[in-house]
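Anyone up for a design puzzle?
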């Protein structure tokens, strides 16, 4: 599985899950196809920040501006793992 596929799966996992989201939970969901350590390495290797996130999200926000007539709210939480 390449990085783009794993990012898509991880994003879908976060969007569709309620409650605690963990690398172990995603690994179980994938029937161990990718270990929780593999998911952790993937997440910790990504050095993109808020600027790159905005470049991805911006086109979708502009689409919603033209479709939605209510309030659009986006909350961004960035968590860094402090484990060595």
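Challenge accepted. My sequence:
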């Amino acid at each position: 599985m390449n990085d783009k596929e794993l990012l898509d799966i991880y994003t879908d996992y976060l969007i569709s899950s309620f409650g605690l989201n963990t690398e172990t939970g995603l690994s179980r969901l994938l029937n161990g196809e990718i270990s929780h350590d593999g998911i952790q390495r993937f997440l910790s290797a990504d050095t993109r920040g808020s600027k790159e996130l905005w470049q991805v999200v911006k086109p979708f926000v502009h689409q919603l501006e033209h479709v939605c007539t209510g309030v659009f709210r986006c909350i961004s939480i960035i968590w860094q793992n402090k484990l060595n």
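A detail worth pointing out: DSSP finds four helices and no strands in the chain.
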